[in-house]
Design brief:
It is built from 6 helices and 10 strands; from the N terminus they run E-E-H-E-E-E-H-H-E-E-H-E-E-H-E-H. About 35% of the residues are buried. The protein is globular. By secondary structure, the protein is of the alpha+beta class. The chain has 2 domains: about 5-75, Ubiquitin-like (UB roll); about 100-230, Alpha-Beta Plaits (2-Layer Sandwich), CATH 3.30.70. Helix 2 packs across helix 3 (about 110-120). It is about 25% helix and about 15% strand. The model has no long low-confidence stretch (mean pLDDT about 95).
């Protein structure tokens, strides 16, 4: 497989053909913020946090799905990009009901961490305050749609890693939301295996373990990556 050489933030970086700009940057120790990206599952460029600038092009590109090319010039941390990322976080905070002080993931939330990283302490946009439901019909887990950022991680990990495809996305635009099976209560799902991978994948407190209280939900992303790696290497086949 051919090796591509590109420039990221003024540094020469080598990457294998077929890799994404995000993967190349991570291997080079260059930080690009992400929310919908999750190691071990496919990328879809939903959150737009990883937008980067390419050469003289005025169009921003999502690094998680952008393939490397020979001679590519990438900028990841310009004033323009920081402005866009800050706006995205503010929009996410205003779109749903994110009250950190009473969230099970307070202190362990990727959206909260991103807000701190970008210096977001308030939103310039009007809060929508939607009336969102909380589904606790499952025996072990619950889903709070107030805290969902529509990253699609739960959908992809359930489909690509567990193979159940219990989760999916319904609605359009601001009215989008995640559903189980044919939009039935999670506890009534016949496809859910209760594996908990969606809980581990969720970046916020939207999908949680029952019984967890404020600040108690800590998630180990390496479990999902371990499962994927083990399957690819056929480590569980005797």
């Amino acid at each position: 497989m051919a090796v591509k050489t590109l420039t990221i933030d003024g540094r020469l970086v080598s990457a294998m053909e077929g890799q994404t700009v995000l993967e190349a940057a991570q291997e080079a120790g260059i930080h690009i913020p992400t929310l919908c990206h999750l190691d071990g599952v496919s990328d879809l460029g939903a959150c737009r946090m990883c937008l980067v600038e390419l050469g003289n092009s005025p169009k921003l590109q999502p690094a998680c799905v952008l393939k490397v090319a020979e001679g590519m010039e990438v900028r990841t941390n310009s004033d323009r990009l920081r402005k866009y990322r800050k706006m995205i976080v503010e929009l996410l905070l205003s779109e749903r009901n994110h009250v950190c002080s009473v969230c099970v993931s307070n202190g362990h939330c990727e959206l909260q961490d991103m807000a701190v990283e970008l210096g977001v302490d308030h939103s310039r946009f009007d809060y929508i305050y939607p009336v969102e439901r909380v589904d606790i019909t499952h025996q072990r887990f619950g889903v709070d749609h107030n805290r969902c950022i529509l990253c699609g991680r739960c959908v992809r990990v359930c489909d690509e890693v567990e193979g159940a495809h219990t989760w999916d996305m319904a609605g359009r635009g601001a009215k989008s939301f995640v559903i189980t099976d044919m939009n039935q209560p999670w506890g009534d799902s016949t496809s859910c295996t209760s594996c908990g991978k969606c809980v581990q994948a969720c970046p916020t407190g939207a999908i949680f373990q029952k019984g967890a209280t404020v600040g108690e939900m800590q998630k180990d992303r390496t479990r999902l990556e371990f499962i994927v790696t083990a399957r690819e290497k056929k480590q569980w086949i005797g």
